[in-house]
Amino acid sequence: MRKLSVFNLLLLLILVASCNSAPKKAGSYMILPSPASMEITGISSVAATEIEAFVKQAKSDFIAGKSLAGTSEVSLSLETTSGLKPEAYTLEITEAHVEIKAATKVGLWYGLITLGQLVQDALDQDAALPLISIKDEPALNYRAVQLDVKHHLEKKDYYYELMDRLAELKINGIILEIEDKLAYEKQPKVGSSDAWSIEEWKKLSDHAMARNIRISPLVQGLGHASFILKHEEYKDLRDDPESDWAFNPLDDRTYEVQFDLYSDALEAFPHAQYLHVGGDEVHTTGRGSGKSPLELQLTWLNRVSEYAENKGLTPIFWDDMPLKNAGVYNSIFNRDLTDAQIDSIWTVNEPNLNTYVDMFPKNCVYMRWNYSMPETIGNNRAMKWFTDHGFQVMGATAGQTRWNLMPLEESNTVNIRDFALISIDNKADGLLLTLWDDDSPHFELYQRGIAIFAEYTWSGQKRTSDELHAAYRQRTFGAELASEDFAFINDLEGPVAFWKNALLDDKDRNRLRKMENPMQDAVLALPEAGKPGAWAEANADKLAKATENQQVIESVLNTISASKEAALRNAYRLDVYEQVAKVTQFTNKSLLLLAEWDLAKTDEERDAAKKKLLNLENEWKEQLAELQAVYGKTRELNKPDDYILDQDHHVHLANQAIKFSDWQFYVEELFLQKITEGNSLQMTGDVEIK
């Protein structure tokens, strides 16, 4: 028996050795953002499982501020005389060894992030690590994301997890539009009751900085000041006594208040590189001073820029108002204008800028924001005016602007790409990705746009849109989901765009709160009892779209379901997309049920359709409860009960109610009320439909 046991043991060892020596399969590796150069030549014998533990420990050491040490399998080399840029690195995986070289610890950090993605891909696919050579550096030095928290906050843990995610995409800056979500100590009335303390924001700032992400505050200034000027204590500082939008730039107390807010914000974000002062979308009157709007704005800008300079910071200023005041702004948003036409416009109007050129502060970054057409001749001409006069200029694109439910236009891929490429060509310092919370989709749905921004600002254009979206799916959910079979986000965009105003009669969802009787004057008219078929005929285009969308949504929901089965991580993001799809599905179903009632040929058909319509309210309550349960896992859905809404000059949905459901789904509420309270569903008797 003993001899047999030894024989079996030897046989087992031979089999194990045989398995271990068999060549592993090659994997599909999608690094995001793309390295500057990458060459794969074969399969390595380095075990991904062992490297995984090393990468985890090395990242932990970097975050803790410890020195980075290698092992027998992995070398980490700091070569300060290598000529590599601060964030650059090289990575080599040979037959039996891994080596990362950089001139700085940050370069090693980014090399570790890339190595971690290679390891993750290998483990996901049960594949070997590749024989690979990477030389990498960013195309833009400053790659920043704007976080806009003015209308709601996420739960605290979510922000910490977000910093980790952004670091994995090699994002190195955040502009945080803080508004009233900081509990200001010097002007305590400004902070809302759900605001974080200075110390709470400082902890997040430290967490981000440990991952090479500097958070800089954006404290809105001359305009966008409703979060301050809505309060009784500050009304005397208004430029227009009837409007909470803008400060009076000629009142010294304006600066006392703003500097107090800056001071607290800079304490909350001690690693700040910039102080973003806002300054966009505002005209001031000057209270009879005789000063022009441009002169008034530059008066304010010089005061706040001097403050930033004294604090050792660079101020950032949205550049739109000088361009508007000078008469050149519209040329930026017209693709049809030729070089000659742009020259003509600027020849006439540029003197309006040049008159005040000496008043433009030199220490300021002039941020050229353009969310729709950064490639225009006019946009480039505007950026050139600033650089020609010795001013710093930086661009701002958008991953989310005024879209409801979710970002559209393929997460704004084209705009992000174009502005990144322009910035690279012009050797700009960096680019900002704005993520406005005005209509407040779930933040998980911004993540693809952030990944797209990370790709183009680090790498330029190395992938097509489809390739980039596939890389996003692989990194986010796992290698299997890189397949086009799991692509659904772009398909969902059409139904979401239709959803926004589908239950309205040629009205806009954002503007109902300003109407006296929105249910009567905005919500879709119901079919009339005495006119069977007329409603369906009048709404034929809308019904055709609803029918088409239902087929799309059914396909999307099936793809999401399959994605959940196959995803190795980030299933929650799929849950959020699923809720968005179900909301649009409800709207399409509602329209088709109205048509079913309107086109019924018998009492029985009509009664059956009516019951379905009257049951929509219960269906919606269930759907809303499900959505809020999903959304509520990561976000604070409602504002505090004592929150004071401002005058809502820009009709931001998220500024129109305290409860999330009351602003996001106000249209659905009115529509269902109209269904249950209306008497137009009482038609009886057989009526021939023509």
From TrEMBL:
Name the SUPFAM superfamilies for this protein: (Trans)glycosidases (SSF51445), beta-N-acetylhexosaminidase-like domain (SSF55545)
The answer to whether the entry has keyword Signal is yes
Matching entries from Gene3D superfamilies are given as:
Chitobiase/beta-hexosaminidase domain 2-like, Glycosidases
> Which stretches make up the Glycoside hydrolase family 20 catalytic domain?
141-348
Q: TM spans, by residue?
A: none
Q: Which residues form a coiled coil?
A: 599-630
For this UniProt record, the keywords arranged alphabetically read as follows: Coiled coil, Glycosidase, Hydrolase, Signal
Catalytic center residues: 281
Q: Where is the signal peptide?
A: 1-21
The terms describing its cellular component in GO are: membrane
Question: Which protein family is named in the record?
Answer: Belongs to the glycosyl hydrolase 20 family.
Q: Report what the protein is called.
A: beta-N-acetylhexosaminidase
